[in-house]
Amino acid sequence: MPASELHTPVLDWYDAHQRDLPWRRPEASPWSVLVSELMLQQTPVARVLPVHQAWLERWPTPADLAAEPTGEAVRAWGRLGYPRRALRLHGAAVAIVAEHGGEVPSEYADLIGLPGVGDYTAAAVASFAFGRRHVVLDTNVRRVLARTRQGVELASTSVTRAERETATGLLPDDPATAATWAVAVMELGALVCTASSPRCGECPVADLCAWRLAGRPAYDGPPRRTQAWAGTDRQCRGRLMAVLRESEGPVHRSALEAAWSPESQRVRCLAGLVEDGLAAHVAPDVYALP
DNA sequence: CAATCGTGGCA
DNA sequence: TTGCCAAGATT
User: Fold this and answer.
1) CA angle, corner A171, sides to A189 and A41, nearest 5?
2) E.C. number, please (predicted)?
């Protein structure tokens, strides 16, 4: 099927159904877009919205954030999860001030040099904030392409060469159209072509979707590993970080001891948090946000 | 390439 | 109730 057959239905659908998100508004700054992209990594939109608003009100520019201690970023990150992203965003702000005159760079090559910015985020910011032409391959896009083009329910674990070539081939020539196409496919994946219970009845390309035309065959690949949680270091780290976040000042070791057992794991995780820069050992038996 | 890294809502 | 899942990056 010609690539262009997807364009008009998806773009029209996006025009009619796109969500009104703060980082998509015309007045949204590139900094707002960058902050949103870091927060949205593995985190649902609904949970990001209030934190993003608070961050932009408190730190309207990269320089505002860069002037703060990293601990303030970690505290304001709240319960979004993966708090190292807060450190990376702070580090990105520092780098933007030091190396880019305080302005979020518009080039992919500069963006991907920032902490916490990988291929997806660099392409997304260049595309959404600056209207550049880039392949934006996130989990939503990958799922839409897997279904419509490959005829399979879910994309592979990692991005394949063929997958990237397919996405490149679908990218409109005009940069502005390419940028809209990128966000439109993502939105389709987020709202209609969802991982579970896709709404094929509402899909603008259902009539040419290889997966639907094949009868929506169930996933038939290697077993997908589900992440353990109870009793893991991640849960332990989360508990310790919650104690540090929710305290106004430094906390005594006893407060951390009450948050987790066994001791050996707690000690190891606390050392890991200090090593990661998420916590500071400010005095004997006293810890705080950095 | 695979493991690691939080959190909470929902089917 | 519990497994699945949400705009990935880093090592």
Assistant:
1) 40
2) 3.2.2.31
